[in-house]
């Protein structure tokens, strides 16, 4: 005997039928943000490259300095100097005639020095008397070289320099400075350092009754 189907009260609702799926297309409208982002990325990339180059150059310079700096510094001495004329005229012109020999000693065993530019200057107090360009040269390991030059002419003295001259004339000792303005490179094997620009200052004292001075050690300022 067939079974009776249960009677349903009211409307019968089956399981919910999901709506048909639709694929929505999303359109991205390019705006200022994307362009700005690309520019920022490019700027950041370039900045990183520049900073990396700076760091590499700084490290290389440090390594070169640590390797090539002389274990023993180059030494400069005035071994001979003559001041055969040092007179003040009636119109306050200082007439001078100065000759100097400067000895340069490189005590290092493996480091040579290129003297690419040598300018010698003579000073009385703050007044420059004269300047001379000397011949460039290369100085080998553990060698001694001699620079010879002379200064001759006249220069007007004013104010404090004129007062200093009169005071030194009374005291009996004249002070004259000779400076070397250099451009040099150190050499080890086949490698050469960048150019350095030291200034060598030689402070000379001349007794008024003598044209000669004693040997003088010069100061080196890098």
Automatic annotation (TrEMBL):
Span of domain Late embryogenesis abundant protein LEA-2 subgroup:
102-188
Say which domain of life the source belongs to.
Answer: Eukaryota
Answer yes or no on keyword Transmembrane helix. Answer: yes
The GO annotation for biological process reads: defense response to other organism
Q: One Pfam family, please name it.
A: LEA_2
Cross-referenced InterPro entries, in alphabetical order? LEA_2, NDR1-like
Annotated membrane topology is: Single-pass membrane protein
Its primary localisation, in coarse terms, equals: membrane
- Where is the chain membrane-spanning? 45-68
Localization recorded for this chain is: Membrane
GO annotations of cellular component type = plasma membrane
* Alphabetical keyword list: Membrane, Transmembrane, Transmembrane helix
Q: What is this protein called?
A: Harpin-like protein
From which source organism is this entry?
Mangifera indica
């Amino acid at each position: 005997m067939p079974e009776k189907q249960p009677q349903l009260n009211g409307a019968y609702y089956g399981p919910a039928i999901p709506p048909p799926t639709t694929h929505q297309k999303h359109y991205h409208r390019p705006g200022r943000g994307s362009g700005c982002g690309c520019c920022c990325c490019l700027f950041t990339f370039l900045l990183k490259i520049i900073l990396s180059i700076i760091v590499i150059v700084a490290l290389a310079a440090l390594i070169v300095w640590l390797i090539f700096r002389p274990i023993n510094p180059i030494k400069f001495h005035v071994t001979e100097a003559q001041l055969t004329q040092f007179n003040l005229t009636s119109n306050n012109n200082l007439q001078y005639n100065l000759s100097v020999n400067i000895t340069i000693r490189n005590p290092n065993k493996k480091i040579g020095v290129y003297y690419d530019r040598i300018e010698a200057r003579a000073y009385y107090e703050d007044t420059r008397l004269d300047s001379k360009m000397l011949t460039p040269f290369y100085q080998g390991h553990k060698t001694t070289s001699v620079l010879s030059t002379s200064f001759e002419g006249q220069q007007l003295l004013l104010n404090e320099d004129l007062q200093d001259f009169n005071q030194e004339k009374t005291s009996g000792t004249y002070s004259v400075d000779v400076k070397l303005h250099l451009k040099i490179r150190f050499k080890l094997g086949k490698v050469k350092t960048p150019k350095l620009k030291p200034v060598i200052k030689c402070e000379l004292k001349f007794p008024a009754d003598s044209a000669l001075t004693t040997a003088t050690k010069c100061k080196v300022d890098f």
